[in-house]
Every structure is written in structure tokens, then in C-alpha cells.
Amino acid sequence: MMMTFRPAQQPWRFPGRLLQDPFSAVGAVILVLLIAAAVLAPVISPFDALELRYDRILQPPGSVHWFGTDDLGRDIFSRILHGGAETLRVSLAATLLGVMGGLCFGIISGYFGGWIDDLIQRVVEVFLAFPTVLLLIAIIAVLGRGLEVILIAGAIATIPIYTRLLRGITLSVRHQDYIVSAQSLGAGHGHILLHHVLPNVLPFALTYATLGLGSIILATAGLSYIGLGAQPPSPEWGAMLNAGRPHIRSAWWMSVFPGLFIFLAVLSVNLVGERLRVLLDPRNR
Amino acid sequence: MQFLLRRIILTIPVLLGVTLLTFAIVKLTPGDPVILMLGNSATPERVAEVRAQLGLDDPLLTQYGRYLSRVMAGDLGTSIRSKRPVLDEIMERLPGTLELAAGALLVATLTGIPFGVWAAASRRRWPGPVLMSITIVGMSLPSFWLAVIALIVFGVNLRWVSVTGGDTLSSLVLAALCLGIGEAAVLARLTCSSMREVLLADYIRTASAKGLARPAILWRHALRNALIPLLTQLGLLFGSLMGGSLFIESVFARSGLGRYAINAISARDLPQIQGMVLFAAVIYVIVNLLVDLAYTWADPRLRYA
């Protein structure tokens, strides 16, 4: 089964094909809204995300504070808008670093083969011997807790996964006619990798990255929820959920709304990723 | 037979690599482990004495060799906080995590597989596509948020479970449900895609041609073959259940390895962290090995490959 994909032929049709499917269209719209809200948070949020106001502690959702206020009197809606910048920034950066590392190692491993391939794959196997969350914890144990640590840990923990996946794609690309003819015309390895292998592997890398982004968002928020990621007073969504723990009897809104946004972010990414996966699968054309 | 032998031998370098990484955890962690152990008030002489005692001045390779032989003998070190062997502490907490993982696995298989069969059987008509979208929703639900909501609904409002959690049966059921739903969604998707492939096979067409009832084709002929490739995913499923228990145990205040790991990191108890990571990784490697062996047992063709 040959898996090839030529975005270069009709790149303008791609967003259209993404939006053809109602589910992925909904996902794309939610994702764009969440990112826009995170970027514009300082402008559009009705209240300050960090200002303590002891005169309005634990107010239930209402017309002034849409999502209520927390135990320190901060507006939860404003905090969620600001928190998106934290959660999404770290998850996106970790995924981007992870997939770029995976692209480098995966393409080199698959294209050159031989001892380089063996060496890279043995190291990858050792890393894959750890469940991802365990690897994240081990890295946090070394580097200490914090949101930036999760960024680095997320990248390190996912590089082996992307390396393994993209090596497979590179292997299927490597022996195709256009690569062989480039080689017989005397093109250098650098030229072939950059102009022939990379453009064909890239769509798969993007799809895997989109599918992986959801898990990284869950991990970022989850680790912050158990206190290993963002620390107070950060409005990171998982950290907000953590702050709601002592108040689950009296203030459900402190737990429900931050979690809802984690869910929406993961859902939107998964809906888009699923559509990308279907578009890439030659059996669905 | 040759395949089995090869597969078993190949885990040895992986396990060695795993010990190398867990050894590196302690070596890479900033701060002097001796001072961490003795406290800041220790005199420099005492620190030097303990350093020599623990062999921390030896070459790294010697230290790794000593660590390896210690680990092979089942000694995962001694906790700084509790002064107890880490392996004992892990063994005490293992049942709690296994209970939770087993419960979640039960939830995942009992709901995920039938759901996947249904989705595959109705894939070109209603409700197939809708079912697949439901699985995406299931996959996207943060288990820890679901758990918090379950606590609010069933603990605070309905008072069926204790909000403070603990190791009760009702909180175990709720925890297993919250952890299992995401895995059920993943399993449903895998079942569906595996079933779709099997349903195209000639023996399925033969079965329908000879007039066999649709349920018999789906559940007896197709599912049995569709489950074989699913076996390979069991190891991954186990890994994500282990990861998920980290968050869920914390919500329900259950005792288990997840909370043990969180406490170990908070207290910077390096032997606990190192022992816990090594233990979990070794279990994960063994489970994946067993899964591969089960796979060759379920599909005899592989034994000749």
C-alpha cells in the first residue's frame, strides 16, 4: 500500500476539504475562537485575571460574572480567557518541538537506514518503554515542577513517538520512483531530503501532530491539576480546576467551567485531526 | 518458537536502557542527594563521610553497575522520608491501582467493543457516522474533570458517594467509570476500523450468501477475527490506564501508585521517584511482551513468519 499525498498540487483546496465535513468544521471554528480568545484576552476580558477582590468572593454565575467568581474574588470568565493563552501556548509549543524533533530523527532514520537507523531506533525503543505520562513525571522529577518544564517534558516525551511514526512514512517514500530518479540524476542527500522527502512526509507530520495535540493539552492541564504544572496564581485551566478542589461542595462553578474549556480545546483539535487523518488515508479517496 | 525467543531476548537491551534512564534521573537532578538525605544542618565532614559510604565519589560506570546489581536483586532503594524500602511501599499501593485499572479496563471493553461493532455494522447509514463522532467526544473528555463532575453530582448533590473519597467500593466504581470512558472511546474506534476491514473478507460474503443471520455474522464470525489486531493495542491501553490513574486517584483520594508518585515528587524523595518510575516501566515492558506472545498464540500464522 503506497501512501502518498501531494499537497503541492492543489494546496488551495485543502482548507475547503477540511470544512466540507460538518464535524471538523465545528472543530475548526471552536479552535479558532479559543485561540482568538486567548490572544485577545487582555483586550476583551471584562475583569482583571489576577486582581483579588474580597468583596465578591465565591459569587455564583450571573449577569455580571458569567462564570461566577473564585475563592479570592477573581472573575472566572476573565481567568479562563487568560488561561487559554497558558494551556494552549504550552501544548502547542510542546507539540511543535516534539514533531520537529521527530521529523529530524524520523527522516534521517528512515532515509539513511543502516547503523544510524539502528542507533536511533534502539534509543526510541527505550523511551517507548515508558508510558508517556510516566516519562513526563520522570522529567518533572529532574527539572522541577512548572509550566515551562511541562513544555520541555512534553517535547522530549513525544519526540520518540513522532520519530517512530515518521520513520515509517519516510521508508514508504524512500523507494518511490521520483526519489530514485533524483538519486540517479546525481542529486545530493540534502537536496533530496529537503525537496522530495520532507514535502511528502510533512502532511503526515502535521496530521500526527494535530492528533497528538489533544493528548498534550490533557497532560498539561492534568499535571497542573495535580500540582506539578502551572502554580498559583496562574489562570492555567488545570491549575484553576485544582483551585476549585476545596470548594466543590459550595462552588461547583470553580471546577466545571475551567474543565469545560479543557474539553472544548481537546475536542476541537481531535475533530480537526480526525478529518485530516481521513483525508490522508488513500482508502478514503 | 524462534519468534518468541527473539522477542524475549530483544527486551533485554530495552530493560537495560530503562535502568540507564532511571539511573540518570538521580544523576541529573540538581542538588546534592546526600544533603537532601541528611538535611541542611549536616556538617561537611559528615556529608563527605556519607558520600564515601554510598560510593558517590566512584566513577559513574561503577555507580551504574552497582545500581544495576542492586536493582536485579530486587532492591529499589530506601525512601528518604519514610526510611522504608521503596519496593515494599510500592507493593502496598499496587493493589489499589490494579483494582482501578482492572475496573476501568472492564468498563472500556464492555462498552467500547459492542459500540465499535455497532458503528462498523452501520457505517454507511444512520447512526454509524454519529457513533464515530460520539467516540471523538469520549476521547476528548478529561478524565479528571469528569471525575470532579461525578463527585459534584453523586457526592455533593445525590450523596451516593463520600466527597472526601477514600477506598470505598462506590468510589472505586465511579473512579473506574471516569477512567474507563476515554479508553472505551479509543477501543470503540479501534474495534470499528478492525471490523470494517474484516467485513470485506470473502468468508463474510460467503456467510451472508449462505443465509446466515446478520448478528451471527457480526458477533461470531467477524468480531472474533477483528479482535486479534486489537490485542496489540492492549499494552498501550494498559499504559494509558496507568497514566490516567495518576489523575483519578488524586480526585477520589484513593491510595495507589499514582498518588504515591505525586507525593514523591512533591517531597523530592528521589529513591521513591526512581523506584516508582523503574517499577512502572518494567511492568509496562513485561505487559507488552505478554501481549505480543498472546498475539502469536491468537494468530498461529505469525509463528511461521
What does it look like?
The complex is a heterodimer of chains A (285) and B (305). Chain A is mostly helical and 285 residues long. Chain A contains ten helices and no strands. The N terminus of chain A is likely disordered. With 305 residues, chain B is mostly helical. Chain B has a domain of 211 residues: MetI-like (MetI-like fold). Helices cover 77% and strands 0% of the residues of chain B. Chain B is built from 13 helices and no strands. In chain B, helix 8 packs across helix 10, helix 11 runs antiparallel to helix 13 and helix 12 packs antiparallel against helix 13. Classes of the chains: A mainly alpha (285), B mainly alpha (305). Chains A and B meet through helix 4, helix 5, helix 8 and helix 10 of A and helix 1, helix 6, helix 7, helix 11 and helix 12 of B.
Give keywords:
heterodimer; A: MetI-like fold; 71% helix; disordered N terminus; B: 305 residues; mainly alpha; MetI-like fold
How is the secondary structure organized here?
The complex is a heterodimer of chains A (285) and B (305).
Chain A: H1 13-20, H2 22-44, H3 76-112, H4 114-128, H5 132-143, H6 147-174, H7 177-184, H8 189-225, H9 237-243, H10 253-280
Chain B: H1 2-28, H2 33-38, H3 44-54, H4 60-72, H5 86-121, H6 128-140, H7 143-157, H8 169-198, H9 202-209, H10 214-231, H11 234-252, H12 257-266, H13 270-298
Helix pairs in contact in B: 1-13, 5-6, 5-8, 5-11, 6-8, 7-8, 7-11, 8-10, 8-11, 11-12, 11-13, 12-13
Provide a compact summary of the structure.
The complex is a heterodimer of chains A (285) and B (305). Chain A is mainly α.
